Amino acid sequence: MKPDAHWLRRTVLTLAVVAISVAPTAAETASSEWKVTDFLLSNGMEVVIIPDRRAPIVTHMVWYKVGSADELPGKSGIAHFFEHLMFKATTSHATGEFDRAVAAIGGSNNAFTSYDYTAFHETVAPEALEQMMGFEADRMRNLILNDEVIATERDVVLEERRSRVDSNPDALLEEEVSATLYQNQPYRIPVIGWMQEIEKLNKTDAKLFYDRYYTPNNAVLVVAGDVEPDAVKAMAERTYGKVARGPDLPPRLRPVEPEQNTMRAVTLTDARVNVPSFSTQWVVPSYNTAKPGEAEALDLLAEILGGGSRSRLYQELVVKKGIAASAGASFAGTMLDDTSFSVYGAPRGDASLDQVEEAVKAEVVRIARDGVSADELEKAKNRFVRSMIFARDRQSSMANIYGSTLATGGTVEDVEKWPERIRKATAEDVRAAARYLVPDHATTGYLLPEAQTGN
Amino acid sequence: MKPDAHWLRRTVLTLAVVAISVAPTAAETASSEWKVTDFLLSNGMEVVIIPDRRAPIVTHMVWYKVGSADELPGKSGIAHFFEHLMFKATTSHATGEFDRAVAAIGGSNNAFTSYDYTAFHETVAPEALEQMMGFEADRMRNLILNDEVIATERDVVLEERRSRVDSNPDALLEEEVSATLYQNQPYRIPVIGWMQEIEKLNKTDAKLFYDRYYTPNNAVLVVAGDVEPDAVKAMAERTYGKVARGPDLPPRLRPVEPEQNTMRAVTLTDARVNVPSFSTQWVVPSYNTAKPGEAEALDLLAEILGGGSRSRLYQELVVKKGIAASAGASFAGTMLDDTSFSVYGAPRGDASLDQVEEAVKAEVVRIARDGVSADELEKAKNRFVRSMIFARDRQSSMANIYGSTLATGGTVEDVEKWPERIRKATAEDVRAAARYLVPDHATTGYLLPEAQTGN
Questions:
Q1: Which residue, A378, A399, A417, B25, is most buried by CB atoms nearer than 10 A?
Q2: What angle do CA A255, A259, A262 make, to 5 degrees?
Q3: Closest Cβ–Cβ partner in A196, A259, A266 for B264
Q4: Which of A253, A262, A278, A283 is the mutation pick for testing B, counting most B CBs within 10 A?
Q5: Does an H or E element contain B269, and which?
Q6: Which ipTM value was assigned to this complex?
Q7: Of the candidates A11, A37, A12, A36, which has an alpha carbon nearest to the alpha carbon of residue A24?
């Protein structure tokens, strides 16, 4: 991966939230401009084509349905390791050749890893699309995985972990909070991997993982841009179509979370922290595990409670009371397994972290008890619709929505009908969703400056 | 298993502590009364014979080197499930036949499961030893595992979980504390299994587990009692010796724990709790993972800090200050992987839980800073030696020591040299061991009555 690639949870969450907030409705896609084409190659590779004629560029993404939550015990980091290894030499191309080809035509490329998927993408002129497909199809199966490549790239990943996690109190806390929130589900394990396990990843681990997961029948190709579906299909067949189907994979059934009976707190105290902050999380259903309508209600709940400057938390704590520098809520819905809902805040001025936490908790209790007003709900739905319009302005957002949904158990139809399902959500659905937020059965992370004592 | 069988962590810890505190020294075993015989059958089964001529009884135990920490992800509870299934019908004996045979001769029998092993044992007259071996050798490989047996016994285990864990605030808290303390090691997962995973255990899971782990080359036979080694050897060859060797198992290498950077708290509030209590734990090396001398120092540290009524915690908090109803420390050393060291306490009279926790923490800080005195160390070593003498009085204790040590990576020599190694420990070793007890990087469980607020 490249220096700016993102694998951190925070970034993934943001992507998921944006993704979910921007899908076009059936009505809004009446114009053929947004008509999405979806088909399978004969080797099982899924292809999604999203026409976008506003500019002569194309976003080309390959999503592998494998992420850190699919790793074997003790092998954490192997999924993210491939985000690096995929940029090394193949039997046809030297290390760096793909990058140089993209740069030579003024394009950009990168990759990212999450709990449920690993994706590789390029943004280039449409003329270069087939060339990109050729490179991607090549590295899907032809990577040279030898001890030297493994050792070199493992050192790079170890250094990445040192600089991004071990030197960063926020990231260190986040890791231990996740491992405390999820006691059985593999989202407990950090995407980058535990240091002591990354250190031991070897050629055997890499080959096993590559041969199992890097196959056309475990991948989704997403192409968004100024392209003709028929032409893209022909190119995909000429490139990816030549890659042999891999072994069939069993359903992605992972350990699930037991009921939480306790209140859990994880506190990191560090001299590098200036402003204290907290984040309280609950395990809740994702779009893939929820009952119909439930995940949509959780999305609206997060929006109304803490989705932005119009939200209750922001208005109450930041604007009216003036005690918080920040306060909000978020729901990471686009996940294969049960996911997290969080509320967070940080004090401002003379206010204490306790005060902010109490005020946030009071809002959580209030929304679960009294629900939301018709007006709030309508405005939240409207904000979601408006956010779609913004999202469409970025071709890559559309590609991300389809890719992340398809890689986490969803379908093209799920994306297209999402706004319709959001519109159907009632105030009672939102209040019911808020019942997941049990104050005494939550997990809270506290980030504290050295001088301050614990919660 | 039988109603009084123990699998709960607390019980296992107690066993481990007793086990470690009672091994005879080389000098003390000079009399041939305690000369232990150790050999392998040709199928790989290890046999340990501990002569004990004081009474005409014999303790017969089979220890399988498999426990809950060896389970596959999502299959928690399968190891403990076998504690039940092993009492069902085999191809040679009906369900209950073994139990009735033991009862008919006035013997007793039972089984228990831990993170690292599963053991089955009978106490009978020496004349019945070969019969016991016959039954045990039979059920090692000849269990009838069909859907009906699985379904019936699974219901029994589910009911066991409901009554022992889900109806017990202490046990519920303990589960979530363990899963918070261990974020990567499998000691995170409860021995009995998570409810939602026990419910799904099936015949395929059981057969796989049985064929993999229930083999002579994965078992240790321990016989303690009024027996002649040569006679026992002949009997073992006639019974266990006929069981075919199983597949070789890979080394028991499990995921290890990352460094802990946070303070973690897990609070369970429940109306059934009368007196609040807390327990703070740290992950520390076990006898199997420690550097030479380190685990012995941890054992002595636990003894001096909180091993009984002579310990610092008891003397300070219960006797002098009178603020605690209980206060102590323990170290679960006999484990395959890194294990836990804990300190705990509960208030008395008007004292608050906070007061007790602060006083315990102060003693932890003091022992890590100032170490222990020569006199304290000498007395603790003497108490260990005395506890051995008591332990010898129970034949089953000796069998437990050898069995648990051999099932967690140790040898007969490790058991025999243990008192010698304890005697070599210095005050500096104990102080060095106390450095694991970092106050800000610990995991604390709080059990609170409904009325009281959190920590």
A1: A399
A2: 125
A3: A266
A4: A262
A5: strand B263-270
A6: 0.88
A7: A36
- Do residues A54 and A126 make contact, with C-beta atoms less than 8 angstroms apart? no
Residue ranges and CATH numbers for the domains of chain A are 36-242 (3.30.830.10), 264-449 (3.30.830.10)
Residues 50-79 of B with CB under 8 A from A: 73-74, 76
Which residue reads 């008890």 in tokens?
Answer: A369
Environment class of residue A248 by beta-carbon count within 10 Å: exposed (0-12), middle (13-18) or buried (19+)?
exposed
- pLDDT of B2 above 90: no
Question: Is a pLDDT exceeding 90 seen at residue A29?
Answer: no
* Cα B246 to Cα B103: distance, rounded to the nearest angstrom: 31
Interface check A195 vs B, CB under 8 A: yes
In terms of Cα–Cα distance, which of B6, B7, B15, B13 is closest to B391? B15
Dihedral sign from CA coordinates of A221, A224, A230, A236: negative
Query: A311 near A329, Cβ under 8 Å?
Result: yes
Question: Is B316 one of the annotated active-site residues of the chain?
Answer: no
Take residue B279 and report the two structure tokens written for it: 């327990």
Going by pLDDT thresholds of 50, 70 and 90, the confidence category of residue B127 is very high
Which of B46, B83, B303, B376 is labelled catalytic? B83
Is the model's pLDDT at A31 over the cut of 60?
A: no
Determine the Cα–Cα distance for residues A273 and A349; give it in Å rounded to an integer: 16
Q: Which of A183, A254, A257, A267 to substitute to test the interface with B, most B CBs within 10 Å? A: A183
User: Does B412 reach chain A within 8 Å, measured CB to CB?
Assistant: no
- Amino acid identity of residue A421, one-letter, is R
Single-letter amino acid, residue A454: G
Q: Which residues in chain A have their CB less than 8 angstroms from residue B259's CB?
A: 195
Q: Nearest-CA residue of chain B relative to A253?
A: B74
> Collapsing DSSP states into helix, strand and coil, what is residue B381?
helix
pLDDT of residue A390: 74
pTM of the model: 0.91
Residue B125 has pLDDT above 60, yes or no: yes
Contact of B198 with chain A, judged by CB distance below 8 Å, is answered with: no
Considering Cα of A64, then A68, then A71, then A75, what sign does the dihedral take? positive
Instruction: Please tell me whether residue B201 adopts helix, strand or coil conformation.
Output: coil
A46, A83, A122, A160: the catalytic one is: A83
Q: Is B438 on the interface with A (CB under 8 A)?
A: no
